[in-house]
Amino acid sequence: MTITTQMTRRHLLTAASTSAILVVTQWPSYVSAQEIDTDAFLKLSQDLTQVDKLDADFAAAMLEAYETAGKGDAVAALVNGQGNDDLANDIVGKWYSGTSPNPDSEQVVTYTDAQMWYAMTYTKPMGYCGGGVGYWADVPEI
Amino acid sequence: MADDITADILIIGTGVAGAIAGSKLAEKGLSVAFLETGKRIDRFDAVDKFWNAAIKVPESAYPNDDTAPHPLSHKIEDYYQQKGPELFRSTYVKVVGGTTWHWLGTTLRNVPSDFKTQSLYGQAVDWPIDYDDLEPFYLAAEQEIGVAGNSSIDLGSPRSGDYPMGEIPMSYLDKKFAAALEESKFEVRATPQGRNSTFHADRPECCGNASCIPVCPIQAKYDATVHVAQAEAAGATVYDQTTATKLNLGQDGKIISVDFRRADGSTGIASGKVFVVAAHGIETPRLLLNSAQEGAENGIANSSDQVGRNLMDHPSRLSWAEAAEPVWPYRGPLSTSGIENLRDGDFRKNHAAFRIEIGNDGHSWPTGAPQSTVEDLAKQGLRGDELDAAIKDKTSRHIRLASLVEQSPDAKNRVTLDPEKRDANGMPLPVINYDYSDYTRAGLKAAEEAHDEVFEMLGAKNVQHSPDIQGAGHIIGTVRMGSNPQVSVVDADLRSFDHSNLFLLGSGVFPTSATANPTLTIAALSLRAVDPIASSVE
């Protein structure tokens, strides 16, 4: 809920600043960090991960974390087609691990919805019940 | 200051030691009050906090308030003022229920030899009690905690009765270890555990949340809030967010009161007839030393100069590898089996004993997996189905061992008080001097060699050993029990030699660390102290 609220505010601010820029100038030849919105980052993330159902709220939080970490311009360049394998790999890794791109963050972007759990079909996030007593004694159903 | 708390028995700390003793004392009809520096914890909030934490250390589910500060595993030099030469790495939390909120749940008993290593092996010191003295209380403690185990398995500690519940099933991974080691010197056994294998004591059976550390979301695993609730039901009062800062001495050598400070900054005095400090191996000596005063110039209970000394842990050799085939970790309780037959033998004349814990938690402890694993695989450029398959294959083969090694008691390993740095309650921060003896280091080396052998028999690859000696989260010693008041702090009843109405409970009183995870022994000793405490109320 908090993320949604913050993103609504952030979208509004971004939209306002974009309008102001349009009054006095043409679109730049590349898309700057300030103008990357969640949809663009979400589309980039879907292309990189090859996962269609990525969450827009997590995309917003992740994009913000990249910007906070000083990587906003690099993300924008990647959106605009500039090659950057390390960053592309990092974005995929973050979607799978759920950890924040901002190394100083004390919180993850998500834990329970990290993509790794969809790959680890034999288990589930820690803190979720896995089944009856002793389900762990056998080969899992996968 | 208001004299605003009064009870027959004042207990400082609501962890397993204080809570179990307090519940039994309250049930005897005695008035009991607890002073607890931490908050009450909402279980779901703790789970949510853990999920959201970037660094998932054992403390990650709990508050670390200025008025209830605790050490953090990933910032081990912040709270502890470490003087070395080694870092003391074990931590705890300050909440109602204490660190049982994030204990693993292993409930092994000590073996009989652990009580007399000096007599048998010429090492360390003998306890003032032997195994037979404690056995009835081990049995009672297993009932109180609710231990699931197989009573017919010989773990080296003779039993006079059965566990209250049947064993927690071994994991698939355990069974792979057991099969590979069947003809070897390593005996894989199901571990007795303080978690329900069936509905028991109004708590549900374990459903394998795999988050025992830091928090069991459904309380299938015992924690000391069980006994806090029993104590309150019997009339005890818990004053949470209330920090004991100084024990006050009367004219007859008895303790007469405790100064305290609440989280809101207000202060007061708690008075009683008997005082129990059950704040474990760091905070108990911290309080005693901070209570130096006329008549106890070296600190309360410290005429022997032993308070704060002989700090121990189970220094741990942490090793990990990749199994040849999937063994499906990251499921079930974090550990369900161990190798226990290396805990005693004539070798103890030469090197420390150890037990090997088999983990079901993959590489979480050493590498932060599975998060670290998936990021590493992504860095290789894998995508889509190929990435998913690699994650599944890699993580399904993660295996981990940790040997908990007996540590020598050494008077130079100690907790003292920082002369300048204080917390928000005005309490000096703990200073720690810490090292390992050659005897302990030889045990660590033997453990590493054992890990190599086990992994080899399993056909595992990519064996790695942590370059650092790890802490086990077992804070032992600093107010040791003994029969000689010149070299120990409490007697076999856990009563201070210096103050007849002061008892110290918890793993701080252990004269030696042995190799068993300490909680069951803490509980047994606390139950044994109940009658002496009760009879001291006049």
TrEMBL record, chain B:
Family annotation (InterPro entries): FAD/NAD-bd_sf (IPR036188), GMC_OxRdtase_N (IPR000172), GMC_OxRtase_C (IPR007867), P2Ox-like (IPR051473)
Keywords: FAD, Flavoprotein, Oxidoreductase
Location of the Glucose-methanol-choline oxidoreductase C-terminal domain: 409-525
Top-level division of the source organism's lineage: Bacteria
Cofactor: FAD
Domain Glucose-methanol-choline oxidoreductase N-terminal: 194-315
GO MF terms held by the record: flavin adenine dinucleotide binding; oxidoreductase activity, acting on CH-OH group of donors
Family: Belongs to the GMC oxidoreductase family.
Name listed for the protein in its UniProt record: Dehydrogenase
